[in-house]
Design goal:
The longest helix is centred in the C-terminal third of the chain and has 23 residues, at 236-258. This protein has a five-stranded parallel sheet with strand order 8-7-9-10-11. The protein contains eleven helices and eleven strands. The protein is 41% helix and 18% strand. The chain is α/β, with parallel strands linked by helices. It has helices at 3-14, 20-27, 44-48, 61-72, 85-94, 132-144, 160-164, 167-171, 186-191, 214-221, 236-258; strands at residues 32-34, 39-41, 52-55, 78-81, 98-101, 106-109, 121-126, 148-152, 175-180, 198-202, 229-230.
């Protein structure tokens, strides 16, 4: 149940277009819906402003479809992460309003909203082209949340001049998500060059001694760039969700500072 749904119900009630009983029927499932195999949080979008998310691994296709249909009743957009192609194919056959993004392994039900052109921006910077799937996951979740993004790829520290060439773009972003595998150094470099908060994402890209992203994770956790935030390996969604919360906090702070002092 998102903000628009609640407001439309209350407006319909105040205008006499819906009865108290009809509105009650819509609201009675709050704050969660018990499906036996899952308890759906109907209030997450209302509390946090971001789309609800279905983590697909470990769920049957039937469970994913049931959850998505329930969430679609009260949300304009629903996101599913880490869905493999076979699962996505079955979901798309049963739910024509779904779309699969194979690089990110993400399912989205509903149309991606337009992000405001004059709103805050999140920079998504990846060290190498091989980090693309993680960057795409971060991008799509922010797009579903109506957040504008700047995407820059293949600017790893092995060719530092490539990063310096886009420094002006980085500095106009409000939050930066920096994605890197192998040595995982890029977030530390970016963190020392910009004022905005930096969220680092280690990826499992790399040869044997990278230990499927553990080496990059430890590098980022031990960064000498003060204030660097680190999420889990390959967790583009987690980084995007963190960036969204930072932007929400910034918005709330601006609103509070603009209130008249009594």
């Amino acid at each position: 149940m998102d903000r628009e749904k609640i407001l439309s119900l209350l407006t319909a009630l105040s205008q006499g277009k819906a009865t108290t009983s009809e509105v009650y029927e819509e609201l009675k499932e709050l704050p969660f819906k018990d499906l036996q195999f899952a308890r759906l949080d109907s209030h997450r979008a209302l509390r946090q402003g971001a789309p609800e998310v279905i983590y697909c691994p470990g769920k049957t296709v039937e469970q994913i479809i049931t959850i998505a249909r329930q969430l679609k009743n009260g949300h304009k957009i629903v996101v599913g992460t880490r869905a493999d192609e076979q699962v996505a194919k079955t979901v798309e056959e049963c739910m024509p309003d779904s779309k699969y993004y194979p690089q990110a392994k993400m399912l989205i039900w509903g149309e991606l909203p337009e992000s405001p052109g004059d709103g805050p921006r999140v920079g998504i910077i990846s060290a190498g082209t091989a980090d693309g799937p993680v960057a795409e996951e971060a991008y799509l979740y922010l797009a579903a949340s109506a957040v504008a993004t700047e995407r820059i790829s293949d600017v790893g520290v092995a060719g530092l001049h490539r990063l310096l060439d886009v420094l002006s773009v980085l500095r106009r972003c409000d939050v930066l998500i920096v994605i890197a595998g192998m040595d995982g150094v890029l977030p530390s470099v970016v963190g020392g060059l910009v004022e905005a908060p930096v969220i680092a994402v280690p990826t499992s890209v790399g040869y044997g001694a990278s230990f499927e992203g553990l080496s990059a994770l430890l590098t980022m956790l031990n960064s000498c760039a003060a204030g660097l935030t680190v999420v889990n390996i390959d967790n583009g969604f987690g980084a995007a969700a963190a960036a969204f919360r930072v932007l929400s906090a910034m918005k709330a702070a601006r609103h509070t500072s603009s209130l008249p002092v009594k």
